[in-house]
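**Sequence with structure:**
===
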Amino acid sequence: MKKMAFAAACVGAVLFSSSEAFAFRKFLDQFSEHYSANQISTQSLTGEQTCGLCHVRAGGGGQRTPFGEDFRSISLGQGSGFPGIEFLDSDKDGFLNLEEIFLQTAPGKPESTPAGRIALELSAAATLVVRPAAECVAMNLKAFGFSFENGSSDLLLNNVQGEIQVKVNGTNGAILARCDAEKLSGSLQR
């Protein structure tokens, strides 16, 4: 009888852990789908980090990262999904979650952080003022609700040194900036 109870407990534990792993994978898939729909790659975050995006262990389960805690309490708890935590700084490293996701640094791990800031400011004359902390070989700008003067929501600028100005259309939304090689990140929300 004890062997049968032990066997049943083992089967139950395996089934529970499998369904738990499936649930974690479901959230990781939702994360990838949400950002893919917004043309933001998450390949290095989901490929290297796996469930470590929200959990301290890459395999998932157990203690959550600060991003995982915010996801559980705000995204799931309040039903806001990933947009509900994009403009938070879960790991308190000075960069918003969305900036880190765009640059593909882990938003829940302060040791995985952008190397510097790209300051973004929108002037009254519909001009985006961009100031990277260092020279940028290739800067990617992505607009949501805004567009650049060429009508696109994406803009690639090469060899950015010092302050530059870019004309934009629109009055509300968000703009993300990143320099991959230099690991610089920035955002503006209005």
Notes: The chain has two domains: 2-103, 116-189. Residues 1-22 have pLDDT under 50 and may be disordered. Residues 2-103 form one domain. The first strand starts at residue 116 and ends at 122.
